[in-house]
Design a protein that fits this description.
- It is a single chain.
- With about 325 residues, the chain is α/β, with parallel strands linked by helices.
- The protein folds into 2 domains: about 35-250, 4-Layer Sandwich (Nitrilase/N-carbamoyl-D-aminoacid amidohydrolase), CATH 3.60.110.10; about 255-330.
- About 35% of the residues lie in helices and about 25% in strands.
- The chain contains 8 helices and 14 strands.
- The strands form 3 sheets. It has a 7-stranded mixed beta sheet with strand order 5-4-3-2-1-11-10. It has a 4-stranded mixed beta sheet with strand order 6-7-8-9, covered by helices on one side.
- Strand 7, helix 4 (about 180-190) and strand 8 (about 195) form a beta-alpha-beta unit.
- Helix 2 runs parallel beside helix 3 (about 95-110).
- The chain is globular, with a radius of gyration of 24 Å.
Length: about 325
């Protein structure tokens, strides 16, 4: 009886040791993603993997996978690869490239934007595929304004918005930069971030779109991630010379001076130490807007704006456009 008890205890002890070792291994591989409950606002970590357009498929895919490992180990929520980063041989969705990338998305519990040349029946598109945290295809965007000589079909589906667990995003690609109607459509779709995989840098037009439409822009060529203020981020993590990581707070919000002064004064007085005015009318920027930011964990600027019946700048602009256009049709005064 004692011998049997001893065997049972030994087996239990072995299981306990194995379990502990497994837990240690898991702990070492734990993903250092943001703990939202301990942070103010609504924060998300994005990565622009700037490894360039085209090239040998196997070589570039291997390079992309190495970068996705780096992004995952740095706790990134969504990583974006460049336009047709692994060459211009068309493949279906899902296909070899998206399946390989999906494994990393699943391993690190992160979204990945994987741009490929897509074979869709008899047609070919320049397509950015969105893969979710489980490694599933969550959607795709086909380039609307294909560049001369690409030899591809142009999208008949237009701009799309994708709902993720951290916010709402859109994707535009390269030559799409030149067509303001696409960027305005992203605004109309109420997105928080526009990802722009490209074969060139883009420059100041991107900064202009960001401030005009109040969303973040993540270009994927030179790592110039752009804030909603229209300014390029200065403090960017660079775990690799070709990878750029930034933490974006999607809760930050603009509000217009129009009709809001007393409401804002009350909100700030009643929530001192919880939110702050990050920017307001100044000699540097004459736009009559406030920019609010939460500074206390668990606090949301956007929820407080609703509580005090203060429209965000985007809400104000969208409502004004709609109501003024309705008055125009009816011949009414404003």
């Amino acid at each position: 009886m004692k011998r049997k008890t001893m065997k049972t205890f030994t087996a239990f002890l072995a299981c306990l040791i194995i379990s502990s070792l497994a837990n240690c291994v898991w702990a070492k591989e734990a993903i250092p993603q943001l703990d939202q409950e301990k942070l103010p606002g609504r924060q998300v970590k994005v990565a622009a993997i700037c490894i360039g357009f085209d090239g040998d498929h196997d070589v570039k895919l291997k390079l992309a996978i190495e970068h996705l490992h780096t992004a995952g180990k740095n706790g990134v929520d969504i990583a974006c690869l460049p336009e047709e980063f692994a060459g211009t041989e068309a493949e279906p969705v899902p296909g070899p490239t998206t399946k390989a990338v999906a494994k990393l998305a699943r391993k690190y519990n992160m979204y990945v934007i994987c741009p490929i040349r897509e074979q869709a029946g008899d047609e070919q598109y320049n397509t950015a595929v969105l893969i979710d945290r489980k490694g599933k295809v969550a959607g795709y965007y086909r380039k609307v304004f294909v560049f001369w000589g690409e030899g591809l079909h142009v999208s008949r589906e237009g701009v799309k918005a994708f709902d993720t667990d951290f916010g709402r995003i859109s994707i535009l690609t390269c030559f799409d930069l030149n067509y303001a109607e696409l960027w305005r459509q992203c605004d109309a779709l109420d997105v928080d971030i526009v990802f722009w995989p490209s074969a060139y840098g883009g420059g100041s037009p991107l900064n202009a779109y960001a401030i005009l439409y109040h969303y973040y822009i993540v270009p994927v060529w030179a790592g110039n991630i752009i804030d909603i203020t229209g300014k390029t981020f200065e403090n960017i993590e660079k775990p690799h010379p070709k990878q750029f990581i930034a933490t974006l707070d999607l809760d930050r919000a603009f509000a217009h001076y129009d009709f809001n002064s007393k409401k804002v004064e009350k909100m700030l007085a009643e929530h001192k130490g919880e939110i702050k005015v990050e920017r307001k009318l100044s000699d540097e920027d004459l736009a009559p807007w406030w920019l609010f930011k939460a500074i206390k964990p668990g606090v949301s600027v956007r929820k407080l704006l609703k509580k005090y019946e203060i429209e965000t700048l985007r809400e104000y602009q969208h409502r004004s456009r709609k109501q003024i256009n309705e008055a125009r049709k009816k011949g009414k005064r404003i």
